[in-house]
Amino acid sequence: MNRVVITGLGALTPIGENVEMFWQNLVNGVNGAARITRFKPDKFRTQIACEIKHYDASKWLDKAEIKRTDQFTQFALIAADQAIADAALDLSVLDAYEVGVIWGSGQGGMLTFEEQVKEYASSGFTPRFSPFFVPKLIANMASGLISIRHGLKGINYTTVSACATSNTAIMDAFNYIRWGKAKVMITGGSEAPITEASIGGFCAMKAMTTRNEEAHLACRPFDRGRDGFLMGEGAGALVLEEYEHAVSRGANIYAEIVGAAMTADAYHMTATHPEGEGAYMAMKFALKDANLLPEDVDYLNAHATSTPVGDMSELKAIDRLFKNNFDRLKVSATKSMTGHLLGAAGAIEAIACILAIRDSVIPPTINLTDPDESIPDGLQIVKSKALPQDVQVAMSNTFGFGGHNGIAVFKKVKL
User: Which domain holds residue 312?
Assistant: First the structure.
């Protein structure tokens, strides 16, 4: 099978509107949490989130594009543009049918749905929906518009697997290239979930933090004081490319993707398996796919959403697979800074893994001041400050409602 490398990155996040800004803030422990400004959150149990600061779509898109797209698609277009530019792809000389897009979004056009239903209700239930309602709403529109924008005629579709969505997209793009079905794939995920309906729904589930007066302390993975996840928004994009194709055009290669796997917990609609059974098997299968052993992994970016149950089930899975490798393995939870981007989480966390390999530094887990007693003895969680360390292999964990487990493994490239 073909080798697959990463040659371009793009990011629009609560702590940076491009990759280098995102990465520097992540390494420096910058916190993206604050009181919600998109709407008045006073009536909600959770009134804080990690918003993109001063988001203005007109910085990147024209008026017509903004009018006909939901925010999740706008985020996708912006991040994909960055990644394609970063990869220095001359699309005019490539076979358009060998370049595809596999994108992910867990919720799709939630803001559009909310706005249109409100309008319908306020009109006295008179049908006067926007002609853009359906195109803005459907989750596949991000992948469709990325391909239209850049003339990409290859494989094109959208994945949905809740908070494992981005890793599902990345895994599929990886597979199509290594199977020889594509030369280049634009992949990643985007989410725009900071809306009244979305926040209200998660509040009703009591899934989110209510530490409203201390937003900067609210997301605290693995800490005794954690009380639920903190919503984030944005997008992450990766250009995956067949290795020989990348070398032949002199592309900058960040890292190689060497393995990926998915499993299902088959346990509960929203809760993770209490013993982390599916997470353990997904990590095990991903390493087998990569032809690596647990002792080869230097860095694990944990899913770690700061929920009481989820964090512990993931730690049990990590303990089971890596307990003989704790002298080497380092773990961090970057959602402590970005919040949880749902379907986009895996994409920006994959970027964190890739840049940890590039720069030999592991980003921290902030707000971990009182470690939970259930953390396995000897497990090295990087706290407070980034850790300079050579990273040869990094693993990115994602888990989603419905029992979806998606894992991606990245490795330093040996030319």
Answer: 260-411
